[in-house]
Write a structure and sequence with these properties.
32% helix; globular; seven-stranded mixed sheet; 60s Ribosomal Protein L30, Chain: A
Length: 321
């Protein structure tokens, strides 16, 4: 399949967003915003860095690549509208595998009714996928919005994705292995939950892509506050205990790619957050609070043995590999 045939094969037969004027088929796409702030995010996914053939089928690669970007929009309180895909394809990948990657993207795009409006295709030495997503919002959620006394909460359970990767790399007998593998291969960005919080006037959010320790430190630094987190409140799946205790600690604090949301919200709005979570059947847990402005920009972890320690900003960092 040549480049132009490939582009034709992934082009949507129709578009769902009324703000789109021109999609694929010209030098650039055109859309007309409707009095809201535009939000954009971009992530790259590189073979043998973010994914490998032995742990991810092509369908999963496409699904997860777009899901990760949608999680960024959820953390900003934005409704996803469009996405663009740049892809570098090596000769080790067949046309059917590339089609499966785009089929995975289409699956999650259909879920959130977003449109593919462009991109680029080149050949290269390895498979690289670069996705740009565009959304809109009338109330962006920034990491810098946390204040003293806020409730710190997290959606879902922590460490699942890394547990799934562990199972895929160490095949054996594990409880709930399909659950953990799915959490690694096909994460669920909390888009609807984020949209459900639009009536809350002030809210800080961060998506858990690099581990809760890293994300909590980002909120503390941006908001110039300190954050207290209780270890015994960190939510994990009931069968998470089957893994080595050292791995449990590492995965729930520093493991990435859970794509849950970490938030800070005023106490008087906490019940509203719980109500939205209940309506959408999203698990949510209060794990700490924003403390005084002493130790600004730092996060502290109250261990189960009541030992208090600094929770350092550790997690996956590409430039420190």
């Amino acid at each position: 399949m040549d480049e132009f045939s490939f582009i034709g094969s992934i082009q949507q037969p129709h578009y769902r967003q009324s703000s789109l004027i021109k999609g694929i088929g010209d030098d650039a796409a055109v859309f007309r915003p409707q009095y809201q702030d535009l939000v954009t995010a971009k992530d790259m996914f590189v073979e043998n860095v973010h994914f490998a053939k032995h742990t991810m089928h092509p369908y999963h690669i496409g699904y997860k690549a777009l899901a990760a970007n949608l999680s960024d929009l959820a953390a900003m309180g934005a409704k996803p509208l469009f996405y663009l895909v740049g892809i570098s394809i090596s000769d080790r990948w067949s046309s059917s595998e590339i089609n499966e990657i785009f089929r995975g993207m289409k699956k999650i795009a259909d879920t959130y009714k977003i449109d593919l409006i462009g991109g680029d295709t080149v050949s290269g030495k390895e498979l690289v996928i670069s996705i740009t997503v565009i959304g809109d919002t009338d109330k962006a959620r920034y990491r810098s919005l946390a204040k003293e006394g806020d409730v710190i909460f997290v959606t879902g359970t922590l460490g699942d994705s890394q547990a799934g990767l562990h199972i895929l790399n160490n095949r054996g007998i594990f409880r709930d292995e399909d659950y953990y593998m799915t959490r690694h291969q096909m994460p669920s960005p909390r888009v609807e939950f984020s949209q459900g919080l639009q009536k809350i006037s002030r809210l800080a959010l961060n998506d858990i892509s690099d581990g809760i320790a890293s994300e909590a430190n980002e909120i503390a630094e941006a908001s110039k506050v300190s954050i207290m987190i209780y270890e015994d409140r960190l939510p994990v799946h009931p069968t998470f205990i089957q893994f080595d205790s050292e791995l449990q600690n590492k995965w729930k604090l520093f493991g990435g790619e859970d794509f849950e949301l970490l938030g800070a919200v005023p106490k008087h709005d906490w019940k509203n957050v719980q109500q939205v979570a209940s309506q959408l059947k999203v698990p949510i847990t209060k794990i700490g609070y924003v403390s005084s402005r002493n130790s600004v920009g730092q996060v502290f972890l109250q261990r189960k043995n009541e030992k208090l320690e600094r929770l350092e900003k550790k997690g996956y960092n590409h430039l420190s590999r």
